[in-house]
Amino acid sequence: MSRSAPTPLSEILAYLNDIGYGEIYRRSRPVAIAAPPAAPELTVPVRPPMPTPALSTPAAPAAGAGLRLAEMESLAAAAAACTRCRLAEGRKSVVFGSGHPDADLMLIGEGPGAEEDRQGLPFVGPAGELLTKILQAIGLTREEVYIANVVKCRPPGNRDPQPDEVQACRGYLERQIALVQPKLLVALGRIAAHALLGTESPIGQIRGRWHQVQGVPTMVTYHPAALLRNQALKRPTWEDMQQVRDRLRAG
Predict the structure, then answer these.
(1) 41: Cβ contacts below 8 Å, ≥ 6 apart
(2) Which residues, 6 or more positions from 251, have their beta carbon under 8 angstroms from its beta carbon?
């Protein structure tokens, strides 16, 4: 994956000014960056692929980052051949995930859109550009975090993924979390929050406070696409991300 040019500082400051804040936190030590595995273009196999492991109870992580990375690559290959649900029928790409495989922060969205489906990468459209600015405003780059979605294939017409589609992909996501071993998770939007927390509560009732997912502290906030539609959501989202920033800083 080619690394995109960094967002100019002036744009980050403009974003913060727009929501009423001006503080930016920068990490004091560098973080080693590892390039994520490229998402392959897909050809749906004639025979069903071997099933991925049942992950309702994630297995113990492999010892060492190298072994965990190898297992992540194997999991991505399994997802690339997956035909577990109807979403496989219309996809161009399986959007498995991208970023640092040993990240402190993992962000989870809903599912790929049209541009993500075309490129095979998560959050590369307008919502992805906004997410990049939000991350930079808390002192992080996309390469320092890990980004995935609840479902790995684009729902037709960008509709909400159906419960059986979410369930078909659940094992992949749970294993991604277990392999990355993040210190914190962020659920971006209603669909991700409901899938991760097993709740149907409105996002306004569950955002802004800490939950637990697979033993990992998890913050719920609004999806960047919602911020593009409703400017009023930018400020509460920034407040949520400040909590994430501060908890990461505290270690």
Answers:
(1) 92, 93, 120
(2) 183
Q: Is residue 141 part of a domain?
A: yes
Across all residues in the chain, what is the average pLDDT?
84
Residues 6+ apart with CB under 8 A from 114: 125, 154, 158
What's the pLDDT at 214? 97
Q: Is the pLDDT of residue 24 over 90?
A: no
CATH number at residue 244: 3.40.470.10
The total of structural domains in the chain comes to: 1
Domain that holds residue 172: 64-250
β strands within the chain, DSSP E: 98-99, 105-109, 146-149, 184-188, 210-213, 216-221
pTM: 0.77
| pLDDT tens figures, 170-186 | 999 999 999 999 999 99
| Contact assessment for residue 95 and residue 117, using Cβ atoms and an 8 Å cutoff | yes
Asked, for residue 9, whether it belongs to a domain, the answer is no
